[in-house]
């Protein structure tokens, strides 16, 4: 054991700087997007149904509105430059004033046509302009970061304008929405990924620790965050509770207790879950053999990997490769 820890420590010296948040954010890969620019005139209201298989967002480009979510006790007032992100696709209502009647998104789409570059609705009063979108992630059901995010991430603008990173991203998005330029869809997908990652980073780094849970809270802990980064960047290593504790400068017992307190599960249980998420993504890509994937996520024996994978997903690796869509539905 000691020799293994010394050998691992030598390998870790080659890592100049480990950023826990960066290591986890790299796991978020968006696979599909759908966007539009909405121009609403007072009075107006829009109801978005719950879609657990998609995330969503809207940004206020001009005007103001109220956001209502059933699970939240009070509505949220939004104005120009504000962004609301819904990592779990939670249903919500937005309207110009509390009490204004709301139509559903389906009705709005039918009214304007699904392929319209701009969607119009309202009574002819003051204008509110929104950029709205929904998107799906690769293997979102097994990603540990997504499960740790709140129902809504709210990024407040500054003096009626979006914060600089958001303003730049939204300007590019607005230009690409409805564009007929070649590669527009790829550009929108990448811009959306930037927007979401920036919003998650803002949430993790915010001072509102009471709104964080699980991984989102653990990542800002200096020692547990480092342990998570090591697991994420080097899942192929033969990690143990003891070796992780040594790497982050804690006692074995202290590390195990602190990890469970912040993350919500023991270190080795989390590591297995992360390895299976990584393996599922690799299997889905189809670029590697099962044996290669087994080694890449820390298993010397294919049989041990297959057993752990089936225990986690309900499928053997081979079955999973043939039934990815079925697995995603069953986890929904």
Describe the structure.
It is a single chain. The chain has 332 residues and is an alpha+beta fold. The chain has two domains: 27-209, Regulatory protein AraC (Jelly Rolls), CATH 2.60.120; 221-331, Homeodomain-like (Arc Repressor Mutant, subunit A, Orthogonal Bundle). 46% of the residues lie in helices and 19% in strands. It contains 15 helices and eleven strands. The chain has helices at residues 2-12, 20-25, 105-112, 144-147, 164-176, 184-205, 214-218, 222-233, 241-248, 252-263, 267-285, 290-296, 302-313, 317-322, 324-331, and strands at 30-41, 45-48, 55-62, 64-68, 76-79, 83-86, 92-95, 103-104, 118-122, 127-137, 153-155. A six-stranded mixed β-sheet has the order 9-1-10-3-6-11, with helices on both faces. A hairpin with a 7-residue loop joins strand 4 and strand 5. The protein is globular. The two termini are 41 Å apart. The model has no long low-confidence stretch (mean pLDDT 84).
